[in-house]
Each structure stands twice: as structure tokens, then as C-alpha cells.
Amino acid sequence: MNNWKITKEAAELHQDAVVWDMTLPWREYGPEEKRLATLPRMHASGFNFVSLTLAADWNGVSQTIHKIAKERTYFLANSESYILAESVEDILRAKQEQKLAVGFHFQGTNPVNYDINLIEIYYKLGIRHMLMAYNSKNAVGDGWNERTDGGLSNFGIRLVKEMNRVGMLIDGTHTGYQTTMELFEVSSDPVIFSHANANAVSPNGRNIRDDQIVACANSGGVIGIDGVGIFLGDNDVSAEALIRHIDHISQLVGPQHVGLGLDYVYDQASLTRGHNTRPAWNPGDNLFGNTPRDDVKYFEPENLPTLTEKLMVTGYSEPEIRGILGENWLRVARAVWK
Questions:
Q1: What is the mean pLDDT of residues 283-305?
Q2: For residue range 156-175, what is the model confidence (pLDDT) as tens digits?
Q3: Which residues lie below 8 Å from residue 147, measured CB to CB, with a gap of 6+?
Q4: Contact status, residue 109 vs residue 132, Cβ threshold 8 Å
Q5: CA-to-CA distance for 109 and 132, rounded, in angstroms?
Q6: What is the pLDDT of residue 30?
Q7: Helix 8-16 vs helix 304-314: angle between axes, to the nearest 10 degrees?
Q8: Contact present, 191 and 216 (Cβ < 8 Å)
Q9: What is the pTM of this model?
Q10: Chain Cα centroid distance, residue 137
Q11: 286 burial class (0-12, 13-18, 19+ CB within 10 angstroms)?
């Protein structure tokens, strides 16, 4: 298969690799037909597994449970195209059967609603990772855009330990600096950044510092490169823009700690309207700089094969490229999921 307009060697590698995207927002912020068309687009572009955001810090328990039920029902009813992945073996089976594996996660811990007992319930319903705080302070700790930079709360420490127990990946994305640094101290499992870029390459409050990258790598974790233009730098969503961040992290801690968390938004205008109805969760002008929100660009799924080709041209080895495309996430999932 080489309708991706890349070299034969790159196409063969891309098709054979396990391609894993750790973050796809899956809320109903735009037309349903446009949302549902996103996953077939990704599968056609070589993706084998995509983790879907089902809830965030603005969702309570009832709304979250109903969302999980809706999505489980949808994917189980469309088993000719999808496999609802609850294990690494499910993902590998999906690739073998030429289907797309999907998994679930939360962008924030408020869906737990102070009840540690819900962690295991959510895990059994398919939630495989959860970030600690979405931009703002919650019961666990501070978000990156909070006026303070406090660490984990006592509740947050209990939550991390329970996530370790059940096998749910701990995610420092969107979370405040000090809170993330304390995650590495408390967690007995690898800690990840599902979708975050290097602040040294593109200064932005949502991007992470070098010492966060080093601490993540030392924990055995992986950083998923985010495909949002304002985080990549200058609203540039080219493969070269992603590689600048891949290069920086690889040189700092090794390519075995790099993955993909593209954070693709299928309808930016609709998402903007949704954010404007929740000003408490709006990250503010310091996130977007001079770029109007409606003008933010995203790395399109169809461009991923080009990234594989560019990584080859840049000089990454085949094992390193396979790791970046998905095998690094595969390794962490094998170590943590139960």
C-alpha cells in the first residue's frame, strides 16, 4: 500500500509499524458526521490505536458514566471496524484484523468527584489514563495556568497510589509544574505526558520544561508530541515542526521516550464556541498569543505517513521510528495496564 505519496521504504515501514495516538478529543463539539469520520481517516492514514478523551475536569460522575456507556455501545456495535481495546493484546489483534483499536481516557480528575473507589470502576469501563488537572486547580493539584504552583494534595497522593494499584496510567499533561514533579516522586509506575511539547523549542505555558522531560524519562514514561500549531511553534503543523520537538526530546533523554499524542481537533470553530461557554476552563490569551483561536492549525491525520518518511530522512533508525510511532507507548502500557 503506497497511496500516501511517500517512498516505498517509508510506506512499508509505516504500514508495518504499530501506530498509536494517545490523545484524540472525542466530545460532541461539532457535527456528529464530521466527528465520526475522523476515525476512518486516521485508520486510512495508518493508525492502529487511538485513545479518546471521554471526559474532562468540567464533567461530573453522571455525565461521565453516560458518555462512557454511549461510546462503549457505539464501538461494540461497530465491531466490523473497531476493537474496544482494554489490553495491549487487543491492540495487536486489531492491527492483525485490519481494524482500528480505540481506548478511553480523561483530561482531568474531577470525574472522580473525591471518590477514590471510582478509579477501579472507571478502569474496568475502559479508562486507561487520566491527566491530573486541566489547566486550573482541582482537588488533586494545580493546573499549568493557575496563579499558584502548588504540588499534589493529600487526596492527589491517594489518587496516584490507587491509579498505580489498578493499572491506570498517570498523565502530567495540562498540569502545573510542581504537581507534575511530585507525581514522579509518588508514583511507583511510569508517569507520562500524553500530549505535550518541549518548552525549550517553543516557549508556551502548555509545553513542558527540560527537567520535566528528564523526570518523565527517568520514571520510564513517554512524552506524546502534540500536533497543535501553537504548541509546535508559530502555528506550524508541518512534519518538520513535529521533528524539532522529537529531536529535542530525543537528544535530551533518548527517542525511546517519545510518542505521539496529536490532540487533533476535527472542528475548531465549534470547539471555540464550547470553550467560550466555560470561561473557568478557558486557558486565556497567554496560551494562544497572537493567534486567534479559530485560526489555530492542527497536524492532520493524513500527514502522518509523511512524518515517518521525514524521520527516515532525518536519520532515525527503523527501531527508533517504530518506537516513536507507537512501540514506546506499547512498552509503557505493557508495564502498567493490568
A1: 78
A2: 999 999 999 999 999 999 99
A3: none
A4: yes
A5: 6
A6: 83
A7: 110
A8: yes
A9: 0.95
A10: 20
A11: exposed
pLDDT tens digit sequence for 90-130: 999 999 999 999 999 999 999 999 999 999 999 999 999 99
Helix (H, G, I), strand (E, B) or coil at 325: helix
- Element (DSSP H or E) covering residue 20: strand 20-25
Cell of 245: 520537538
Distance CA 276, CA 60 (A): 19
Is the torsion defined by CA of 260, 193, 58, 149 positive or negative? negative
Q: Coil, strand, or helix at residue 29? A: coil
Q: What are the helix (H) ranges across 98-209?
A: 118-124, 154-166, 177-186
Nearest to 171 by CA among 192, 148, 156, 144: 192
Angle between helices 210-218 and 177-186 (to 10 degrees): 20
Which amino acid is located at 3 in the chain? N
Query: What is the Cα–Cα distance from 37 to 85, expressed in whole angstroms?
Result: 19
Residue 185 CB: number of other CB atoms within 10 A?
A: 13
134: nearest Cα among 155, 110, 108: 108
Mean pLDDT of the chain, nearest integer: 94
Output the pLDDT for position 1.
Answer: 53
pLDDT score at 294? 74
